[in-house]
Write a structure and sequence with these properties.
391 residues; alpha+beta; 4-stranded antiparallel sheet; 23% strand; disordered N terminus; disordered C terminus
């Protein structure tokens, strides 16, 4: 876990492969160059796609390196510190951001309403004391950061700066999150998200042409169909007569802007992304400008909802990163969270209203209906292994 710039070993990057290191496996190279981090931890970081070789992501620890290759870390790579350092053990947390609203809390977990602008965990350019994790420690929700309970989270969770964090939301996204108060509850909740027993529902404000897509007999928008003839991508878009849609594709990091993601032209080295959609008008009248997209995620890829909607030419309003119309905020909100309590086994359901003045833009407040439209066979599908990134 990293708590000060002095400890951040990312400052040693980029690394260049010299003749003595040519031919080494990638994990061996890191073990030689940065022995402060164990080889096992490097393997985990590589497999999660945090390592970049010559501007291409690499998730293979056994990749052999060529002389003069440039090795660096992805922009969202976790902070790196020397395992077990005294500074980590004696850290005193503070929080300097906007606190979330507590929706529910017991001895094992809490559900919070994360505001726009609050980062979930530390990362590139995001200090610890401005994150949701820092709030959880500073407010005593996760115990004391300088105790053995803190170290009990284990290396993999601590090295990514996310104790308690089960799933994530982008900094400009608002909505519900569940935070585990101990490692056993964290593991149980993470498994529920992995096997789709837990559900996350979102509302996004998109252009009104979404309604045409929903009502069209064509399987794909004509503009997208023309694009795919020139740039084939492995995607699947399924629609029902009732207006329910499922969209599957593969996502990869953008090779030009490493902080962005895009729909991949191949499944090699990319991650499967699946979501379900229902559209409804966001304004009264025969010609609304905007529509609501209600989304249920089956995978939790970084920027997933934003990338997939943009690919359908339905970029979320306020999403300047993925070509959305200018708006006062990113109009994406995690409105409902459903899971089974790991200890009591109770079915838990929480909803949060959109923190937005709808009258300001003559918008109709969205109503949730995606669960009642969800086909039975989808809920019985085989688990997809998510990596629990923000949406």
């Amino acid at each position: 876990m990293q708590f000060s710039a002095a400890m951040d070993l990312r400052e040693r990057f980029p690394l260049t492969v010299d003749p003595d290191d040519a031919g080494l496996r990638l994990d061996q190279f890191f073990a030689r160059k940065l022995p402060e981090i164990s080889r096992a931890r490097w393997v985990r970081l590589i497999e999660k796609g945090f390592v970049v070789i010559d501007d291409k992501n690499n998730s293979n620890p056994a990749q052999r390196l060529k002389v003069n290759s440039r090795v660096t870390l992805a922009p969202d790579a976790p902070l790196l510190d020397e395992k077990g350092s005294e500074e980590s053990k004696n850290f005193t947390p503070e929080f300097l951001g906007q606190a979330p609203e507590i929706i529910y809390e017991d001895t094992d977990l809490l559900v919070v309403h994360k505001p726009v602008g609050l980062a979930v965990h530390p990362g590139a350019g995001m200090p610890w004391n401005q994150t949701l994790v820092a709030w959880a420690y500073a407010s005593g929700k996760l115990g004391k950061a300088d105790s053995k309970d803190f170290l009990a989270w284990g290396d993999e969770i601590l090295e990514e700066g996310r104790p308690g964090i089960v799933h994530r939301l982008d900094m400009p996204t608002s909505g519900l999150m569940v935070i585990a108060k101990n490692p056993s509850v964290h593991a149980a909740l993470s498994e529920q998200f992995r096997t789709r027993e837990a559900s996350r529902l979102y509302f996004a404000l998109v252009p009104a042409q979404a309604l045409k897509l929903m009502n069209s007999k064509d399987s794909l928008p004509q503009r997208l169909e023309a694009f795919l003839k020139l740039e084939p991508c492995p995607i699947a878009l399924r629609k029902s007569p009732e207006g329910f849609m499922s969209f599957a594709c593969f996502l990869e990091r953008d090779p030009v802007n490493r902080t962005k993601f895009r729909v991949s032209k191949t499944d090699k080295g990319a991650k499967k992304a699946l979501m379900h959609l229902v559209f409804s008008p966001a304004q009264m009248g025969p010609k609304p400008e905007f529509a609501w997209a209600e989304v249920k995620l089956e995978t939790g890829r970084t920027h997933q909802i934003r990338v997939q909607l943009s690919f359908l030419n339905l970029a979320i309003l306020g999403d300047g990163v993925y070509f959305g119309e200018k708006f006062e905020r990113l109009m994406l909100h995690a409105h409902t969270l459903l899971f089974t309590h790991p200890k009591t086994k109770d079915e838990m359901k929480f909803s949060a209203p959109f923190p937005f003045d709808f009258t300001k833009h003559n918008l109709i407040a969205p109503k949730s209906r995606i669960l009642e439209m969800l086909p039975e066979k989808i809920s019985e599908a085989e688990p997809i292994d998510p990596d629990f990134d923000d949406s």
